[in-house]
Amino acid sequence: MAAAKSSNTNWFVIGVSAAVVVVLAVLAFVVVLLNNQATDPGAAPKSNDTFNSETGSIAFGDGDDTVSIFVDFQCPVCKSFEEQYGADLEAAAADGRITLEYHPIAILDRFSQGTDFSSRSAGAAVCVAESNPDLYLDYAKTLFDNQPAENSSGLTNDQLADFATQVGADDAVSCITDETYRKFGAAQAKKNEISGTPTVELNGTRLNLQDQADFKKFTDLLG
Description:
Layout: H1 2-39, E1 51-52, E2 57-60, E3 65-71, H2 76-94, E4 98-104, H3 117-131, H4 136-145, H5 157-166, H6 173-177, H7 184-191, E5 199-202, E6 205-207, H8 212-220
Parallel strand pairs: 3-4
Antiparallel strand pairs: 1-2, 2-4, 3-5, 5-6
Helix pairs in contact: 3-4, 3-5
């Protein structure tokens, strides 16, 4: 009897231990899966003469100095930056003084009541950059002109697609409504370690526009 009881107890302990191992393995799998989903860049857009899908940049001009601007279309400061410097940056690119690169990214999804507007708007901009790169600037300006308030639900996919139609980028409509590149903006933000926007780089070196010397480097390029 004692031997049998001891044997039953041992099997019980072994069974419980095995169950714990299985549960831990399942939890580990779920954690890995969620991490992979969080960092998954999603579908890869196609590059063209203007858009580089590897770097996520939409480039204009051919100047020796490259100015890279990382923007989130939910960011009010990005809108102000565009209103203040956008025209001068484009003029400098058109004159061959700089190569201007725009990088649509997503870091502010938390400010759109669960609709991930930052990701969806960045993805929509990538759709335009892929299919109608010459219309990217017009589309980006339209997004800023219609920027939703923070902590609102943002714009719908149909609205984002309608703006593409308004600027002539009809080829991007289905890409936008299908959310083809919804994950691209967040993946690019992570890849480039962007935690605030707008982020400005000069020839690959990140500038602090609050620093007088860095700010002068930036404004000197604009003439």
